[in-house]
Amino acid sequence: MGNAMGNLLSECKRCSALVDHCDLCPATVRQQTDDEPALGRRRPGHEYQPTDISEAELLQHALRLSELEAQQGHMAGALMADYPAPSSEGSPQEEALERARLREEQDAEYEESVRIDRERAAQEALRQKEEEEQRRREAEELESQAKQAEAAEQAKKEKIQELMEEAKQLLPPEPSDGSACLQFLIRTPDGRRLKRAFAAENTIAQVYAFVLLEGGEAVRGRSFRLVETMPRRTYEDRDLTLAAAGLKGPCTLLVEFIDD
What we know:
Layout: H1 2-8, H2 27-30, H3 55-81, H4 92-170, E1 181-187, E2 193-199, H5 204-214, E3 224-228, E4 233-235, E5 251-257
Parallel strand pairs: 1-5
Antiparallel strand pairs: 1-2, 3-4, 3-5
């Protein structure tokens, strides 16, 4: 191929073109010696302008130059084909390094995944522990509240029982002489009508004792007062006698709760 390129790129003696042979130049011109004047020879820095060639010959000459340029490009491509481009594949050492790098990345990703899973498991265990602790505290609080309520209820029952015992001891026998006693009609909030006779020297506290004993669950354990409606008067001074409190004749009283 080197010899072919050498033959192709030989220089024309007449026009300084790189040609294998030139059919345009007449034999007389080709045999011209260097000391003879060369008509139309290209001067340095100027294109060749032949003066003794016809227009048809000039056209053939231009076509020939175009063909030569195409042949030169084809042969240059053939020469480049003899020298293959460097392979994109790396050397065995580079491939081994790449595989090692990939393994390191995979190992790092696996370790990161394991770490994340461990953190999630630890967080879930902590959450479950906190929830169990919260449930335990709530159960203990409910149990404590239940015990407190039970204790309060027991204390209330004991208090009522104590008041009932005191009321029994405080309440006098009902007088038998109707002319010397006061008749009481006492109404409770639940609709009960309590009737009893008291002596004028009995106290207001003894009337309260009677209501507590006979008023039932509606009045037991509740704070209340005795009220006269027309005109409205309250009887809360339990140390007064009935006469001193101004109670005379048949008395109608209402039980009014004051602990609401």
